[in-house]
Structure formats: structure tokens, C-alpha cells
Design a protein that fits this description.
It is built from 9 helices and 3 strands, in the order H-H-H-H-H-H-E-E-E-H-H-H. A 3-stranded antiparallel sheet has the order 2-1-3. The longest helix has 41 residues. The chain binds fe (ii) ion.
């Protein structure tokens, strides 16, 4: 039994010792294997959280795109520089509006849906499934405000305003008479919205219309397809215009409104 290192033990004692050694070795190997699996899966889970996080569509967002996300929503990038909308909207306003308010909605939503049935759902699905439900109001408000703001940033563009693309212009003229009349109706909706909210150009049953919504509400939940949005929450204009909402709205319509984005949203 020398090869088994029994050192003079009886044969049965030697067999018992060998069996114990084999058992001990097997247990150790299983423990190492289990530990390896555990470490690997936790690393994978962490990587998965980040690698599969699909940022909410930003610069090229269209209203008919389903915004998808995995575990964590990410603040979408601005489609232009912070100072690109000056002098109509200052970089200071954008820093607060985008960097604090819009980011705040993203952070809040991530906290609110962590570990719930809404975690990982496309943003639009969260919005439609929580709309009108009092016990889900906080989730709806934050999800809708993420969507609204991303849409709003894309509704503006440096050197915007001017003439809409031909196909859209034809539709505007069919619905409002002139582009000027459409802008006037948008301005009226934006300035007459009581308190916080939004003014919208929408497609409703094949016709263009102007709509307004309060707080975080949006046309998506009313069966209308949004084409453009103007944010009329005070945080959108107060640093630059104080209480002069009409000045902000008219400057946006004349110099920043992104008719090409609206035209893209028709398809
Ligand atoms: Fe806003």
C-alpha cells in the first residue's frame, strides 16, 4: 500500500483513508466549481445590466418608434449642443431643463419601476398601461415626461421655423388654410394652456389638428399621433422670458420649430 501513502496502516484502514481523500477532493472540486459559477453569473448579470441597456431614442426619435429599454432607462442625448438654440432658448435654460428636469424624470422612473412588472418594458408600453390609473400616476407622469421631453428636443432645431417641407405644407394648408394660421393656432393653444402642459401638432384621423395637454399628458393616450410638441411648463422658458410665455412660444415657432421632424413623423 506504499503507493497510497498508508504508512503501515492495515489494508481496511488504508482503503478508508483513500476513500476519505477521494471524497474530500470531490467536495473541494464541487465547491470550487460552484464558486466559479456564482462569480461568473454575478459578473454576467452586471454586464447584462449595462450592455443591454438600450438608451431611449434621442436625436432621431420618431413618434411611431417603440422606445425600448432593458433594466435601466438612460437620458437620451440632446440632438444639438446646449447653446445651439440661442438666442431663443439660452444654454442656461437647456442646462436646467435637460440636465435637471429631463434627467430627473429618468432617475425617478428608474427608481419607481425597479423590481416591478414595468421594469424593462418599452417606455410607450409603460405610458399606455399606466395612463388614467390613479395608483400608477407617479410612474405615468415620469414615463410620459421622459417621452414628451425627448420629443420636444427633436421638435426644435437651430435655424428652424421657415417653410415646412412640401408634403407637410400641403396638409397644413388643407387643415388650417395657411402655415401662418397653423402657427397661430399652435400659439393660442400654448398660451391658453392653464398651468403646466404641452401644445401639439397632431395627426388625428388623417387630419392635422392642434391639441393641448396638461402636466404630463400626451396625445398618444388619446389615439392621436403627435408631430410636434411645445413645452409650456415654466421651466421651459422662465429663466429667459420670465412670465412672457407668448414671447417664448412665438420665438420658438418663428425660429426653432422643426418642420422636417413633423414631416418625418407623418410616415
Ligand atoms: Fe419641460
Amino acid at each position: 500500500m506504499g503507493e497510497h501513502n498508508c504508512y503501515g496502516k492495515s489494508e481496511s484502514a488504508c482503503i478508508k483513508k483513500k476513500a476519505y481523500e477521494l471524497w474530500e477532493s470531490a467536495v473541494m472540486r464541487m465547491a470550487v466549481f460552484a464558486l466559479t459559477i456564482l462569480i461568473s453569473s454575478s459578473v454576467y448579470a452586471e454586464q447584462g445590466t449595462y450592455k443591454t441597456s438600450n438608451p431611449i431614442q434621442g436625436g432621431n426619435m420618431k413618434n411611431n418608434e417603440v422606445i425600448t429599454s432593458a433594466a435601466v432607462y438612460v437620458l437620451p442625448p440632446l440632438p444639438y449642443a446646449e447653446n445651439a438654440l440661442e438666442p431663443v432658448i439660452s444654454a442656461n435654460t437647456i442646462r436646467f431643463h435637460y440636465g435637471k428636469h429631463h434627467k430627473g424624470y429618468v432617475d425617478n422612473l428608474n427608481k419607481l419601476i425597479a423590481g416591478t412588472e414595468f421594469a424593462g418594458l418599452p417606455l410607450e408600453k409603460i405610458i399606455t398601461e399606466t395612463a388614467g390609473k390613479a395608483d400608477k400616476a407617479a410612474i405615468f407622469n415620469n414615463a410620459a415626461q421622459i417621452w414628451n421631453h425627448t420629443f420636444y428636443w427633436n421638435s426644435l432645431t437651430p435655424n428652424g421655423g421657415g417653410e415646412p417641407p412640401a408634403a407637410l405644407k400641403k396638409m397644413i394648408e388643407a387643415s388650417f388654410g395657411t402655415v401662418g394660421a397653423c402657427k397661430k393656432e399652435l400659439a393660442t393653444a400654448a398660451t391658453s394652456q392653464f398651468g403646466s402642459g404641452w401644445a401639439w401638432l397632431v395627426l388625428d384621423g388623417g387630419k392635422l389638428k392642434v391639441a393641448k395637454t396638461g402636466n404630463a399628458d400626451l396625445p398618444l393616450t388619446q389615439g392621436m399621433k403627435p408631430l410636434l410638441a411645445i413645452d409650456v411648463w415654466e421651466h421651459a422658458y422662465y429663466l429667459d422670458y420670465q412670465n412672457r410665455r407668448a414671447d417664448y412660444v412665438n420665438a420658438v415657432l418663428d425660429k426653432l420649430i422643426n418642420w422636417s421632424f413633423a414631416a418625418d413623423n407623418l410616415s
